[in-house]
Design brief:
Blueprint: H1 2-7, H2 10-17, H3 25-34, H4 51-63, H5 65-69, H6 74-86, H7 93-108, E1 115-116, H8 119-127, E2 134-135, H9 149-158, H10 160-168
Antiparallel strand pairs: 1-2
Helix pairs in contact: 3-4, 3-7, 6-7, 8-9, 8-10
Length: 173
Amino acid sequence: MLLQQYLKSPECLLCDEEFCKMTSLELAISIASLSTMANGNRHPHQYRISKHVLLELKEKLLAISQSIRDCKSFDELHNLVLGVCDSIHGAGELLSYDVAQRIGEGFLKLPPEFVYLHADAKQGARYLGVKSRVASVECFPMPLRSLTPDHLESFLCIFKNEIHNLVFSNEAV
């Protein structure tokens, strides 16, 4: 079963532990926007993005750090980061979600309340009949509802091809 496979995967643990040791908002913004993992490497989601784009994002987010600090929900934070990313050529939906998630969960303690669908996660969700950009966990099949929204987003991304194969072979996720 894909869900059991995900729960045992390093990706599942990475979601919980990798970016949760931030001691200040400025550090959280720097680590999140530069996509720096604990080992010093760039996160695989952002390896194709030029360092110039990530540095510009960092500077723009640091400039609005008080607005970031004032966010009361992940959705508010995500919209703020998305607006900044939209102003930078080469920064897209996946980067904005990842940066918001890292700051939100790693420092502000604002986890996503919904599943944000972009890139591969959007494709995985579409195979399950979910076509919106943001969805409630309840929109997904029962076994997947045990996941938090951020884990469900990761699951959909990682297993999009397997979901496609299962759905079209009428097997259970």
